[in-house]
């Protein structure tokens, strides 16, 4: 979908459908002849209550009157929601070009969210379906924001970020037989070839072992598909700017290994690479935005499968930093991959770290799909992550780290265990495992197991959500 901004009136555009938002206690700012829109409100067909929509025709156009609710409660998340609902209605009407008349005094963040909500709602994953009929409107082709002041920069940035999130959804929705670790690495390389200031280096499985990443390599050894470590760097600022390290778990299919998962729901384990997809696409968005930042992405891509060569419960492996790890459960594989990726990012010069992973079922029990889990060893970094989540609508909730939890991840036969004997505080102990490898480097961990797919938002459908793209872009820009 193409997105543009204009200072002309909606009627001066080529839009065939125009959306006019109305707040509680306010009237239509620019009505059409005969006060058709205000008449909808008087008749009760249109309503100022949030999420209420009504449709009429005037001046040769379709008009959607959208209730915005109370002005002081209208924020970016409400903007994304109402934009998604309006676009869904416009799509049903066969809209080709949709124009939002931006309400007076709406801040630029909310205006950008109108773009995000529209583009995200228009997403469809139909790669494996027959091509739609020519008259089957899946989304408007063009979105225009009409405002009294120039919103072109805001609209362009929002379109870049929403487009990146939709590409992360594509990666997440692609099945594991097509999106192998090698295919994900090739995707990152192709993206980098199109973007200035982005470079990608890929380590194959032999190189991963040669580097000493015994924890990562142990997860990979059960699959015939070779693992890849994807190092993606964006240099949008001078060398004296600190490097933000973004670490993504990309298990392209997770069967649980020899500690096999239940069959019910295993098909969803193609989504175990959503953290890696978020990192790749966030860095791509930062490059397209020409953000003045330096970011190092480290993505551990592998499958976790049972076989005669698979890692076994009870095995002991050695991580990149020399730590020995007792593998008590092969389905706690994500932390093994991330451990080596975190150590690698520190070795490569990252001054702050954020890892993002579909790591534990415990976070789904604790927070559901409304928030991702946040754990951090640095209060300032945690506050920045929380602020980025609040600004973008990708909400996080901070859970505690504590030495008592760290004691639980100490191994009986090795320094650490990848799964504690006491099955409690599973999301926190998983983070404490990662904390060991981050050490004193400022680090934050995002557990997105509850938010990475089947999002419960009007602008997200079933399947991958692309959660984390907006948050990571915002974090890099405000940090």
**What is the CATH class name of the largest domain?**
Alpha Beta
- The secondary structure category is alpha/beta
Quickly give the CATH architecture of the largest domain. 3-Layer(aba) Sandwich
Give me the CATH superfamily of the largest domain.
Answer: Zn peptidases
Main β-sheet, spatial strand arrangement: 7-8-10-9-13-17-14-15
Oligomer state of the chains in this structure: single chain
N-to-C CA distance: 30 Å
Largest sheet: 8 strands, mixed
Write a short abstract of this structure:
Helices cover 35% and strands 21% of the residues.
Would you mind describing this structure in some detail?
This protein has 479 residues and is of the alpha/beta class. It has helices at residues 36-43, 76-92, 108-121, 152-173, 181-194, 205-211, 214-220, 274-288, 334-347, 361-367, 379-392, 403-408, 426-438, 469-478; strands at residues 2-6, 17-23, 53-58, 61-69, 97-101, 142-146, 198-203, 228-235, 243-254, 294-304, 316-318, 324-326, 352-357, 372-376, 396-398, 416-417, 443-447. An eight-stranded mixed β-sheet has the order 7-8-10-9-13-17-14-15, with helices on both faces. Strands 1-6-5-2-4-3 form a six-stranded mixed β-sheet, sandwiched between helices. Strands 11-12-16 form a three-stranded mixed β-sheet. The longest helix is centred in the middle third of the chain and has 22 residues, at 152-173. 54% of the residues are buried.
């Amino acid at each position: 979908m193409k997105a543009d901004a204009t200072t002309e009136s909606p009627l001066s555009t080529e839009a065939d459908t125009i959306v006019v938002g109305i707040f509680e206690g306010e009237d239509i700012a620019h009505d059409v002849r005969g006060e058709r829109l205000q008449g909808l409100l008087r008749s009760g067909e249109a309503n100022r209550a949030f999420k209420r929509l009504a449709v009429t025709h005037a001046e040769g156009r379709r008009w959607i009157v959208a209730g915005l609710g109370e002005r002081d409660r209208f924020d970016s998340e409400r903007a994304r929601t109402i934009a998604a609902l309006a676009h869904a209605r416009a799509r049903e009407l066969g809209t080709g070009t949709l124009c939002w008349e931006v309400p007076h005094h709406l801040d630029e963040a909310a205006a950008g969210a109108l773009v995000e909500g529209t583009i995200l709602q228009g997403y469809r994953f139909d790669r494996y379906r027959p091509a739609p009929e020519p008259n089957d409107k899946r989304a408007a082709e063009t979105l225009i924001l009409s405002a009294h002041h120039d919103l072109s920069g805001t609209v362009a940035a929002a379109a870049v970020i929403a487009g990146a999130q939709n590409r992360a959804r594509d990666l997440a929705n692609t099945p594991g037989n097509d999106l192998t670790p090698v295919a994900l690495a090739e995707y990152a390389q192709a993206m980098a070839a199109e973007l200035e200031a982005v470079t990608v280096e890929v380590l194959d499985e032999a190189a991963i072992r040669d580097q000493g990443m015994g924890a990562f390599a142990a997860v990979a050894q059960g699959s015939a598909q070779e693992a890849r470590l994807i190092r993606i760097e964006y240099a949008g600022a001078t060398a004296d700017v600190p490097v933000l390290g973004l670490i993504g778990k990309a298990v392209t299919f997770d069967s649980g290994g020899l500690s096999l998962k239940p069959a019910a729901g295993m098909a969803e384990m193609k989504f175990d690479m959503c953290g890696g997809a978020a990192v790749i696409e966030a860095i791509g968005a930062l490059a397209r935005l020409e953000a003045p930042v330096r970011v190092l992405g480290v993505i551990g891509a592998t499958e976790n499968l049972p076989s005669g060569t698979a890692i076994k419960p009870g095995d002991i492996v050695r991580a990149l930093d020399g730590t020995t790890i007792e593998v008590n459960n092969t389905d706690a594989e994500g932390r093994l991959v991330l451990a080596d990726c975190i150590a690698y990012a520190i070795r490569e010069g990252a001054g702050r770290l954020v890892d993002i992973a579909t790591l534990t079922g415990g976070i789904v029990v604790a927070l559901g799909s409304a928030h991702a889990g946040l754990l951090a060893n640095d209060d300032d970094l945690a506050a920045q992550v929380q602020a980025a989540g609040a600004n973008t609508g990708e909400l996080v909730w901070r859970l505690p780290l504590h030495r008592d939890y760290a004691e639980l991840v100490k191994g009986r036969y090795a320094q650490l265990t990848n799964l504690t004997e006491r099955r409690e505080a599973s999301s926190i102990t998983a983070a404490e495992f990662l904390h060991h490898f981050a050490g004193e480097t400022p680090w934050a961990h995002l557990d997105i197991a509850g938010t990475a797919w089947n999002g419960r938002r009007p602008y997200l459908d079933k399947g991958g959500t692309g959660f984390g793209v907006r948050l990571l872009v915002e974090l890099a820009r405000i940090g």
